[in-house]
Write the structure tokens for this entry.
Amino acid sequence: MRIGVASFSHETCTFCPNITTLQDWDAGGMLYGADALDTEGQGEGYITGYKEAAEEEGAELVGILVARGPRTVGMGSWLTTEAFEVISTRIVEGIKKEMPLDGVLLALHGAMAVTNVPRPEAELCRRVRKIVGKIPIMVTLDLHANEDIELLNTVDGVFILKTYPHLDGHEISKIAAKCMISTIKGDFKPVMAVRKPGVISASVYQASEYYPMKEVYARCREWEKKGIYCASVAPGFAYADVPDAGASVFVVANGDHALAESCAQDISDLIWSLREALTRPLPRAKEGVAQVKKMVIEGTKPIVIAYHDDRLGDGTHVFKELLEQGARNFCTTSIADPKVLNILDMEHQVGDIVTVTIGGWVHPISGPPVTVTGRIEWLGPADWVETGPMGRGAVRHEDLVASLDLGDNRHVVISKRLRAPMSADPLKAIGLNVDSFEIVEIKSRVHHKAYWDTWSAVDFPIDPPGTTPADLSTLKYENLPWDLYPIGKKWRK
Ligand SMILES: [Zn+2]
């Protein structure tokens, strides 16, 4: 039994300024053949899940291609048509060379946006289908996938992460691969149902362990106890302006199509009923930092500020407020500024007192550059093994990162690109005394909570101007369905 494996994943922020090119993807790295299946030092993920299932069931995986992801400073915008065409062709040609295969597993994301290609994941699957004929194709997707019936029409199984923070890449892939193997053996007859509930929401509201999504995932698990093989919900990625945006429900059952349809409809109705809970106003930078300072003074600490909408990495809004409002004992964990970092590296060393102007260079929405004077406390590479729940066991390396001590136990980390510490490890790796902080500012929405909720008294999301705001009505969409709640034309006041 030979199963081809490929991965081509991107969460495209079409409101971010810089397009994502083939060169960016190639710089990030392409793994072919056996290398595509080598997961040494990466922690658990989609591919390790496929591998474990294959080992348990005695199937052979055939590595086709794993695109490791484009090398960009922050999130990339629209993929060029060329990037999609060339990488898709590499996958299709790789599969062609390995035929005959008994099945194909594709680890995709679902929120890729490509110029001239309205539904890139479905398009890729259609191209694979043309090559492989009737053998099963099954895909795993991120919980931020934007998909619809076109994907269902092309593949035999769709399996979406069940957790946000995403902790189950390995598990969902195992579920998918086991389904694939049972299908090839003839023990499983995959049937699917799909629904689009018609609701779009910002990522910051989608944590799976909190209301309202907690209710939705609990309902999925109930259906799985009632005979559904896998009930998946993707609340979706709102910052890709694509025609299949918004939440989706994908249900896989063994032969019982009516059951799959009932399940999908029930979950879709539940999501629709929770639509208002999927938005709530968040404070802007000035009032948010003021509230955090007040809580700290009153004894609620430490606090994590989730600066949720800086997807470019150069955002300064929260850092600026922390400085201006006289906060102490804080760490701003990342301002991306490769230029300043290179100057520090060439002209300075640890211990030097420097004045630098950082951030606010990618796009005006990131806020103004901020000038600070401080002592260089770290300047060089950072290496660590992730011990937090996100990517546990992964060997991490950054070739250059700096930390400045600004006095009063105030610290700012300058990085090459957007850096969101998923645990204390990336901060400890550069010598920071994490437990001395009252406030830690992290440019993340939900993933960081897997670790940082165990450290902080409060997780406090702040909504400064940014490319991916909580209030979606401030974005200029062009491709959404007219009836998508709450921002399709039908709902706009
Ligand atoms: Zn995601």
